[in-house]
Amino acid sequence: MISFLWAQDEKGVIGRNNQLPWYIPEDLKYFKKTTMGHPIVMGRKTFESIGKPLPGRQNIIITRDENFCAKDCLVLQSKHQLLNWADQQDKEVFITGGAEIFGLFMDKVDRLYVTKIFANIEGDTYFPIIDWSEWELVSSEKGPKNEENPYDYEFQVYERK
C-alpha cells in the first residue's frame, strides 16, 4: 500500500524555502508515530532539508541524479524503481514529499494522511491539485491549539473510493 503523508494550509501551501513554513510540534509527533517502522519516500530536496535519515524507518530517496548517495538510505532514480520495490514490501510505504514526488505518485496512492492547517501561511510550494471526489474521509481528529501549536488543525485520513 502506498500512502501520502503531509501537512498543508488552507491554500495548499506545504513549504517555503525548502522548509516547513510552520512549527506545530503535535504534527511532527503525528508524523513520527504514523511512519515509525515503515519505509518513507522523499525527494532529494526534502531529504537535504531534513539533513539526515529519520531513525526507525527505512529512508528512500528518489532523485534523477545517478551519482547521489546518502548514508543509510536507499536511493532510487525513478517512479518505476520505487513501484517495483514497494510491490515487494509487506508494510505501508509513505510518500512524504516534496510536491514533485507527490505529483509523480498521485495515480498510485491508496491512502492520504493530511494535516489540514486552518490558516493562510506564506509559502512557495503547494501540494499538487487533487480531485477530492475520488477520496473518502475515514477519520478526522482535531489537534490541540495552544502556545506550542499556534494554529487550528486537524489530522485527516482518506481512502481512495
Give the helix tally. Answer: 4
Helix/strand-derived category reads: alpha/beta
Q: Percent of residues in helical segments? A: 10-25%
The largest beta-sheet arranges its strands as 5-4-3-6-1-7-10-9
**Low-confidence regions:** none
CATH homologous superfamily annotation: Dihydrofolate Reductase, subunit A
Do you know the CATH topology?
Answer: Dihydrofolate Reductase, subunit A
Which overall shape is indicated by the principal axes computed on the Cα atoms? globular
Beta fraction: 25-35%
Return Rg in Å. Answer: 15 Å
What top-tier CATH class fits best?
A: Alpha Beta
Output mean pLDDT. Answer: 96
- Could you spell the SSE succession in H and E letters? EEHEHEEHEHEEEE
CATH architecture type: 3-Layer(aba) Sandwich
Count of individual beta strands: 10
Largest β-sheet summary: 8 strands, mixed
Q: What number of structural domains do the residues give?
A: 1
Question: Termini, distance in Å?
Answer: 14 Å
Organism: Heyndrickxia sporothermodurans
InterPro entries: DHFR (IPR012259), DHFR-like_dom_sf (IPR024072), DHFR_CS (IPR017925), DHFR_dom (IPR001796)
GO molecular function: dihydrofolate reductase activity; NADP binding
GO biological process, one term: one-carbon metabolic process
List its salient traits.
EC 1.5.1.3; 10 strands; single chain; 8-stranded mixed β-sheet; 4 helices; alpha/beta; DHFR-like_dom_sf; Dihydrofolate reductase; DHFR_dom; Dihydrofolate Reductase, subunit A; 161 residues; DHFR
Structure description:
By secondary structure, this protein is an alpha/beta fold. It has a single domain, classed as Dihydrofolate Reductase, subunit A, CATH 3.40.430. 21% of the residues lie in helices and 31% in strands. It is built from four helices and ten strands, in the order ββαβαββαβαββββ. It has helices at residues 25-35, 44-50, 79-87, 99-105; strands at 2-8, 13-15, 40-43, 59-62, 73-76, 93-95, 111-117, 125-126, 135-142, 153-160. An eight-stranded mixed sheet has the order 5-4-3-6-1-7-10-9, with helices on both faces. It has a two-stranded antiparallel sheet with strand order 2-8. α2 links the parallel β3 and β4. It starts with a strand and ends with a strand. The mean pLDDT is 96. Keywords: NADP, One-carbon metabolism, Oxidoreductase. This is Dihydrofolate reductase. Key enzyme in folate metabolism. Catalyzes an essential reaction for de novo glycine and purine synthesis, and for DNA precursor synthesis.
